[in-house]
Specification:
- With 86 residues, the protein is of the alpha+beta class.
- The protein has one domain: Alpha-Beta Plaits, CATH 3.30.70.330.
- It is 23% helix and 35% strand.
- Strands 2-3-1-6 form a 4-stranded antiparallel beta sheet, covered by helices on one side. Strands 4-5 form a two-stranded antiparallel sheet.
- The radius of gyration is 13 Å and the shape is globular.
- The protein starts with a strand and ends in an 8-residue tail after the last strand.
Length: 86
């Protein structure tokens, strides 16, 4: 399993700091990114969390998928490689 996770169904109130705090309870987090809409500067409702090691990433999927954060039930899964742009 890879170290990078996709986190979906985020509340617009969720910040990178709150996401880091939640996932940091599982293990050492390397990077947290919430994807923002360029026009509105508002969260698109998803982001990515990268762990230092794959074991913590796997544990985070098991323990945090379906958990509530800022009033929303988040989806946590292994991130897929982006599709090439045409």
């Amino acid at each position: 399993m890879k170290n990078k996770l996709f986190v979906g169904n985020l509340s617009w109130d969720t910040t990178e700091d709150s996401l880091r705090a939640m996932f940091g309870q599982i293990g050492e987090v390397q990077e947290v990114v919430i994807i923002m809409d360029r026009r509105t500067n508002r969260s698109k409702g998803f982001g990515f969390v990268t762990f230092v090691n794959a074991e913590d990433a796997a544990r985070a999927v098991e323990e945090l998928n379906g958990k509530e954060l800022d009033g929303r039930e988040i989806n946590v899964s292994e991130a897929r490689d982006p599709k090439p742009r045409e």
